[in-house]
Amino acid sequence: MKLQCVLLAVVLVNTGLISVTSAHGGSDSGGRSCEESVADFRCRSNVICEGDRGFLRCAVGKIQITSASFGRTDRRTCSRGRPDRQLRNTHCASPNALAPVSQSCNGQSSCELSATSAIFTDPCPGTYKYLSVSYYCLPPEIRSVTTCEGGMVLNCALGQVIHVHSANYGRTDGSLCASGRPPSQVSTTDCYASNSLTLVSNGCEGTSSCSIVASNSVFSDPCVGTFKYLYISYTCECRVWNLIVSGSLYLLYHHFLMLT
């Protein structure tokens, strides 16, 4: 793996498929920037009218739910053929929509959802509701790990290093890390520690292995009384990609040429 990574870097530089920034600034080729090369996390959305069924699908990768709401927030969505009295209330939202949707769909390439009050409870009787879901397709090379309050270790193979894509210490799903916990400790699902990504990146970015402790003492307490967990998504990338960012690959390339 280590040799493959080095050879890959040399081939890419030699063919001009990547852009290498020198120590003096500027670019040695016309390739895409690092930001432009990041995997596409295009957000997708689906709306299912009350009483109907719908599907979420990823042609490549796995589903990762970002938000879910069952209720009504405007008068136009799912309004055809409905009397005005069923559309007036636009401040209607079920408090537990995210958990069942995440449980049914996260990690799947496709899933079926039903928009019914039997699943999401009825936040506003008499109002015609709909299920609105936002998600993205997590690329297959991206790994995601979750640990309840405690510790976790991230590892990459020889010649690879960790690149952190996202992290959150808190709670966005009522079903994760909920075993044996009273409802009062898992009902809050909009809990985010704003320093999560920074702290995880500081400890793991560019290393082949790292250990992170999921605790209030590390991340602070974003939602007192809620039992939290740490979620991280990351990739294992060739070590040379970190050299690209630092502008050191140019030197590596010329060193390789002198050895051949």
Any overview of this molecule?
There is one protein chain. With 260 residues, the protein is an alpha+beta fold. Helices cover 24% and strands 31% of the residues. The strands form 4 sheets. The chain has a 4-stranded antiparallel β-sheet. Strands 7-12-9-10 form a 4-stranded antiparallel β-sheet. Strands 2-5 form a two-stranded antiparallel sheet. The longest helix is centred in the N-terminal third of the chain and has 14 residues, at 2-15. The chain starts with a helix and ends with a helix. The model is unreliable at 1-40 and 244-258 (pLDDT under 50).
Number of strands: 12
Under CATH, the homologous superfamily of the largest domain reads: Rhamnose-binding lectin domain (RBL)
CATH structural class of the largest domain: Mainly Beta
SSE series: HHEEEEHEHEEEEEHEHEHH
Helix content: 10-25%
Radius of gyration: 23 Å
Q: If you average the pLDDT, what whole number results? A: 79
Strand content: 25-35%
Q: How many domains, in number, for the residues?
A: 2
CATH structural architecture of the largest domain? Sandwich
* CATH topology tier name of the largest domain: Jelly Rolls
> Which structural class is indicated by helix and strand composition?
alpha+beta
Low-pLDDT regions? 1-40, 244-258
Strand sequence of the main sheet, in spatial order?
A: 1-6-3-4
User: What composes the largest sheet?
Assistant: 4 strands, antiparallel
Could you say which overall geometry the principal axes of the C-alpha atoms support?
globular
- Our count of helices gives 8
Distance between the termini: 20 Å
